[in-house]
Amino acid sequence: MSYTYEYPRPALTVDCVVFGLQQNAALKVLLIRRKLDPFKGDWALPGGFVQISESVDAAAARELKEETGVDNAYLEQLYTFGQPDRDPRERVVSVAYYALVNLSEHTLQAATDASDARWFELSVVPPMGFDHRQILECAIARLRAKIRYEPIGFELLPKMFTLSQLQQLYEQILERDLDKRNFRAKLLKMDLLIDTQQKETGVAHRAAKLYRFDMNKYQSLKRKGFSFDL
Amino acid sequence: MSYTYEYPRPALTVDCVVFGLQQNAALKVLLIRRKLDPFKGDWALPGGFVQISESVDAAAARELKEETGVDNAYLEQLYTFGQPDRDPRERVVSVAYYALVNLSEHTLQAATDASDARWFELSVVPPMGFDHRQILECAIARLRAKIRYEPIGFELLPKMFTLSQLQQLYEQILERDLDKRNFRAKLLKMDLLIDTQQKETGVAHRAAKLYRFDMNKYQSLKRKGFSFDL
DNA sequence: CCGACTTAGTGTTAAAATCACACTAATGCA
DNA sequence: TGCATTAGTGTGATTTTAACACTAAGTCGG
After folding, report:
1. A152-223 has which fold?
2. How far is B10 from chain A (nearest CA, A)?
3. What is the CATH number of domain B11-146?
4. What angle, rounded to 10 degrees, do the helices at B163-174 and B180-190 form?
């Protein structure tokens, strides 16, 4: 079967920058090892071709699941990369997305299927083919900017989390230290964290309270013009 | 001539939301009247197909110039619209851009070439085909958000402008009144406006000082972590 | 030429947000 | 039982924001 058009068309792909966070670990990004040329054997962002009958968003979600096992993650369009020479074979335009997953709840199993997917700390990502390095940088910049005015950081944490975990998350992404008392005061003042009345377990020190993020309340405040601002 | 591929490919287009501002007028958007089906005769965003050997950015700039005569405008990628049914004929994915032009310096002549391009105030944009209304809303939201933390508003003004013009611009885009003294104090404190030592002419009242935006200084401050913030 | 009209330009103060800073409380473990 | 480790808490100085009203300069019309 083949398809013919009057004018040449670029191929259209999606690529996903998947950020993941594990308890007491640095922020990581998920890469897969390429099985095919070009850049066969190199690490690259998961992605693939947009099917003719699916939306571009759906293509990103599908590729993410197929290639890494990550399902139902927070997924948002990032930017479209359209330089004519970004793929050495032929003209390929790629719509990039970024995803946020918490590794405590998504199994790393599926993600490492066939052991050709791996998490890399941001400071040690290997060289990647195409313009994937640039896409990654773009995603980091977006995440860093966005986390300051939208409560997307919670997507990287388990449903219940301690204030220290939340603070560490912000410190990692923003790459600077935050004052513990100021951070806690500010977040609690927004009144969007629900005290679950539960405590951490299995830690060799005073157990911290566990909170949940009140997404419903946030959504309704947002409609009234409230701005989450760190 | 025709082009054949093993799998079907969506067509790839660009669409441009062109914002323009004229002296003492409301913010406007530039639309063209469609000459072809679908939606023949309706108003729509200027745009067209991405050529196989040009970057997507270049395609946006080219289409903007071809269809509206606008050249050298500030042009930035907005979002990629990829719903399968957004074009009734066939699968078309569109990368949307937005442009900022000041109508004092770009001639409206070229833009109204063949009288099938017109500026519309945002409050009276006519119905548009495809998902162009959604694209426009997306662009307005982006402009409104971005103008608060990047000095892109200056792109809509002539090279020299008065503080009142600048304030009116912000008031229009943000859709709220700003306090004159606070606005002036804040902007002058940033020390990014250069007093040109010239004054307005041809006004029936006290002439205001004309300023220029110091883009070089801004760029260098930005590299050092300075944040333009209104 | 002068009075009326229109927009430019200018400071102060109260309230709120931000920032820096250090100790006690709870828990597991040796 | 005491040591190690992280949780949890308040205050004061500084900066930023927000509200507010008059004088200055210039044009125009009579």
Report:
1. Arc Repressor Mutant, subunit A (1.10.10)
2. 6
3. 3.90.79.10
4. 110
